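Person: Please work through this fold.
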Amino acid sequence: MNKITIAIDGFSSTGKSTIAKQLAQKLHYVYVDSGAMYRAVTFYAMQQEYISECYFFKDKLINNLEDIHLSFCYNSELGFAEIFLNNVNVENDIRSLEVSNFVSRIAEVPEVRRKLVEQQQEFGKNKGVVMDGRDIGTVVFPDAELKFFINASADKRAKRRFDELIKKGDKVTYNEILKNVEYRDRIDSTREDSPLIKAIDAIEIDNSDLSLTEQFDKIYEIVQNKLRNI
C-alpha cells in the first residue's frame, strides 16, 4: 500500500500530538512533533538567557541558530520519539508552563521558522509521516494527501492541560493555564509569518466532547478511506 503524508494542525492543547502518535503507531509511520522542535529552541533561548518576561534578545537567538541541533530518538518503552537538543534529551524539560509562556514568541521569528520548516520537510521527504503543529498543512506540507485541523473550546483545552501538569507534580492554577492557552491562540493566529489557519482542504475535528478513543476511531476511519482510494 502506498504511503502518504498526514498533516495535523490546530490550536494548543487540543491533543494533536496524542492523535498523531496513535496514528503513526497504527500505520507504522514516522511521527514528528514539530511543536517539540519550537519548544526545544525556546528552552535553548531560556538557557542562554535570550528571553524572559522582561526581555527578548531576538538578534542573539538568530545569530546563534547554527548552534542549535535538534534530533529525535525513538524510545521503545514510551512508543514514540523523544527530542534531543544538542545531544541532550529535553523531552520533559520542554513541557513546562514557563516554556509554554515563551514558545509562541520564539515561533514568531521568521529565521527560526525557516530553519525548522526546512528540517521538517527533510523528515517527510519519503512520505509515511505523521506530523503535527501549527503550519504543517499550509507551509510545511501544503501537498499532503491528508490534512486535519483539530479544535476544542479554550476551557476544555485549559482543563486538559491543567490536569496533565498537575499529574506531573507542577504547581500551577487553572486560571494560569487558561490565560496561557488564550494568549497562545492570539499570538499563533495573528503572527505575520505562517499564522495558524485552517488549510482549505483540511478536515476539521472539534474534540471538545470526544474521548480519546472516539477521536482516534473517527480520524482513523478517514485515514483508512483515504488509503483505500490512493
Observations:
- The radius of gyration is 17 Å.
